Amino acid sequence: MSPLATKPRILLVDDDTDILLALSDYLRREGFEVDPVKTGVAALQKSTTSSYDAVLLDVGLPDRDGIEVLNELSQVHPHLPVILLTAFTSLRKTANPDILDKAFAYLIKPYQRQEVKSALHRACLARNIAIAGWQGSSVPTLPIASFPSLLQPSSTGASPDEASQHPLNLTAYERLAEYAQLMQFAFDHVPDGILVADSDKRLRFANQAACNALGYTQEELKSLRIPDIAPYHDNEKFQQRLESLRKGQPLSFPSIHRTKSGQEFSIEISVYLLNFQGQEFTCAVTRPVEEKSHA
């Protein structure tokens, strides 16, 4: 099944009574707790009074546009993964991409039940990782091949019957792409900033928390180097710290970062050394330091 520690609780939103009953029954047999509702308003109300691990949301609701409901859910519950259920293969062409990108995944009807279960397992796992901040047992240990595909429509063009016979028949690229989606979702929902730089000190990755703290977009940060955001960067100390990391010594220290607008703020930074495809990278996890008030 899944490395989830507890019984996941799912909010299922679909106005079709038959689908609502059948899917609820199936998911309960598969180990999920399910709260079924038929409208967008009911879904939003439920989300304010109950805690969920994931949402299955039909786009075509009678009272509210499902994309609007997705937008509101993501604003109120940023850690809550939402999986869209839609009959429209052109959804990505017609929906607002800024809102649609807030969905964890989307499944096109008619979907296979195995697809729904697999999508929910991955969504709940991603939420656990995001909330735990990559600490403890929430870090996934399953290989990439353990996660069934969420890419829709199928790149193989297989019919639903063929897909049900070969639910895990994915290319290595597809598996890598969906695993990357899981990791990106988790990284962007942890509270700490995460920055990765190459051996030239050029930033190669920044999660959403780092972008928010520094006031840059991810693309803007990837055009900068460490000294651009660390105004008191000392190259000699940096090289000494690299040597410590190469010896396997843990490294944490206070520092100062500077935002896009020029404001400086204190941080606590933990640095890790990564070796990827023969190249050396530094991964920094940053936490803002609250200024102490003096009586």
Return the CATH topology of the largest domain.
Rossmann fold
Helix/strand/pairing category: alpha/beta
CATH architecture of the largest domain, by name, is 3-Layer(aba) Sandwich
Largest sheet: 5 strands, parallel
Using only C-alpha atoms, the radius of gyration works out to 22 Å
How would you name the CATH homologous superfamily of the largest domain? Answer: Response regulator
Output mean pLDDT. 79
Give the strand order, joined by hyphens, for the main sheet: 2-1-3-4-5
What would CATH call the class of the largest domain?
Alpha Beta
Fill in the keyword field for this structure.
2 domains, Rossmann fold, alpha/beta, Beta-Lactamase, elongated, 38% helix, 295 residues, 22% strand, 12 helices, 5-stranded parallel beta sheet, 5-stranded antiparallel beta sheet
